[in-house]
Amino acid sequence: MTAFDLTPPTDSQRAALSAGLSAAERRVLLEHGTEAAFCGVFLDNKLDGIYTCRLCGLPLFRSDTKFDSGTGWPSFFAPYDPGHVRVITDTSYGMTRDEIVCARCGSHLGHVFPDGPPPTFERHCLNSVSLGFTAKGDALPNPLHRGGAEAGVGN
């Protein structure tokens, strides 16, 4: 069980958070788009910290689970907490894939594939524009102004 509040944002909170998105962020997070390969800001990020949902700030992946998949998108072998991502079936483009979305706000993050490294053998392939990054020791984002774990420091 996670220490984070997974209650979805209210309609007014969602509208306020969405208003701050760029066109590219809106297309990916809200319209389930994909950014071009090899151009995302977090593809080559080697800093120690936590990757969070760009929209609601929920911690999604730790930097120590990031690996170079060679695909052109930031890839991770395990989520921060399994309850922080939700898997849904994506049948777009004539394919069936496992799409991952933020468990709190439902924003599109990317897809998960069964071809990653041990110990999970999963490859969570994410769009950089779906993510924020908090360096180790810095305060986690708290755009929904919730207490508890959201008010904590990223480790």
UniProtKB/TrEMBL annotation:
One example GO MF annotation? peptide-methionine (R)-S-oxide reductase activity
Instruction: List the residue ranges forming a coiled coil, or say none.
Output: none
Q: Does the keyword Oxidoreductase apply?
A: yes
Looking up InterPro entries in the UniProt record yields:
Met_Sox_Rdtase_MsrB (IPR028427), Met_Sox_Rdtase_MsrB_dom (IPR002579), Mss4-like_sf (IPR011057)
Annotated MsrB domain residues: 14-136
For this protein, the Enzyme Commission number is 1.8.4.12
Q: Using the UniProt record, name the top-level EC class of this enzyme in a single word.
A: oxidoreductase
Q: Which UniProt keywords apply?
A: Oxidoreductase
- Catalytic activity from the UniProt record: L-methionyl-[protein] + [thioredoxin]-disulfide + H2O = L-methionyl-(R)-S-oxide-[protein] + [thioredoxin]-dithiol
The answer to whether UniProt assigns keyword Oxidoreductase to this entry is: yes
Q: Which PANTHER family match?
A: METHIONINE SULFOXIDE REDUCTASE (PTHR10173), METHIONINE-R-SULFOXIDE REDUCTASE B1 (PTHR10173:SF52)
User: Which NCBIfam families has this protein been placed in?
Assistant: peptide-methionine (R)-S-oxide reductase MsrB
Q: Which family does it belong to?
A: Belongs to the MsrB Met sulfoxide reductase family.
Q: What is this protein called?
A: peptide-methionine (R)-S-oxide reductase
Q: Which organism is it from?
A: Lysobacter koreensis
